[in-house]
Design goal:
single chain, mainly alpha, 8 helices
């Protein structure tokens, strides 16, 4: 898996850089696009360096885990976050080029819907990022019940670490609790966004995007709960992680559908 991930990362790098060089030489890029392309290709290199930095932390001997090599959850989250930013930037650029913009009336309701959609997209991103801490600390294995954590709504060891802030990044119980709360907040926000959008007239494509986002949100919640109850089997956990990317993709699609038309 490690070897495959490295090779795949290098192929992704080539998939960015080789076409970029070709289209640049052919003169297909406008001046603003050239800046975006340079930024994306630079970010690909940065992502590779961050991956090496993350793997390096797994090569250090740790007294608490001699048997299984473990990377730092902080570096894992940074690597995942960087990958998500690169993916979102690439997707946004692609959608901006491929999707014709809608001429939507600039009403107060539509402005509120755009703001709501941006906040919801940010929440989807943050929830996906918190999954890196869950994976890095094996936090999915500490309380395998839902909706309660064991016999309690709020577990006793939620704030067991000192100082206080350390719990949010190094205490598996707190990390799982936070991921649950973020997941519930995300699906609630998406439901609210969908219901709010029903109160206004939107193009058919925008309605489809919002409906897909809502359906994927509930599917992702189901995957998350199933992963927890079945003690995190790898295929189910990988599907849940893929679901977070699908949800982020749909959130970006919704934002692209609701974007302002350039004057």
């Amino acid at each position: 898996m490690e070897w495959g991930h490295r090779m795949w990362g290098r192929l992704v790098g080539l998939a960015y850089i080789l076409p970029a060089v070709y289209f640049w030489r052919k003169g297909y890029f406008t001046r603003p696009m050239k800046g975006c392309i340079l930024g994306l290709c630079g970010f690909v290199f940065f992502q590779g360096l961050l991956g090496w930095y993350m793997v390096k932390s797994g090569l250090e001997e740790k007294p608490e885990s001699y048997d299984v090599p473990r990377v730092s959850q902080y570096r894992l989250a940074a690597h995942l976050g960087s990958a998500l930013v690169l993916y979102c930037a690439s997707l946004w650029m692609g959608l901006s080029l491929l999707l014709p913009t809608h001429k939507l009336p600039d009403t107060r309701q539509l402005t509120l819907l755009r703001r709501f959609a941006r906040g919801t997209g940010g929440l989807v991103f943050l929830t996906a990022l918190s999954g890196a801490f869950v994976a890095g600390l094996d936090a999915g294995l500490v309380y395998n019940s839902f909706p309660k954590m064991g016999e309690r709504w709020v577990p006793d060891d939620l704030l067991a670490f000192s100082p206080f802030l350390k719990n949010f990044f190094e205490n598996p119980t707190t990390v799982q609790f936070d991921h649950r709360i973020l997941g519930i907040c995300t699906v609630t926000a998406i439901t609210g966004l969908y219901l709010f959008s029903r109160r206004m007239v939107l193009p058919r494509r925008s309605k489809i995007a919002l409906s897909c986002l809502l359906a994927m949100a509930y599917a992702q919640v189901g995957l998350g709960i199933s992963t927890l109850l079945f003690y995190v089997p790898t295929p189910l956990a990988a599907t849940h992680q893929s679901g977070s990317l699908a949800l982020l993709t749909l959130a970006m699609w919704v934002l692209a559908e609701l974007r302002r038309v350039a004057k």
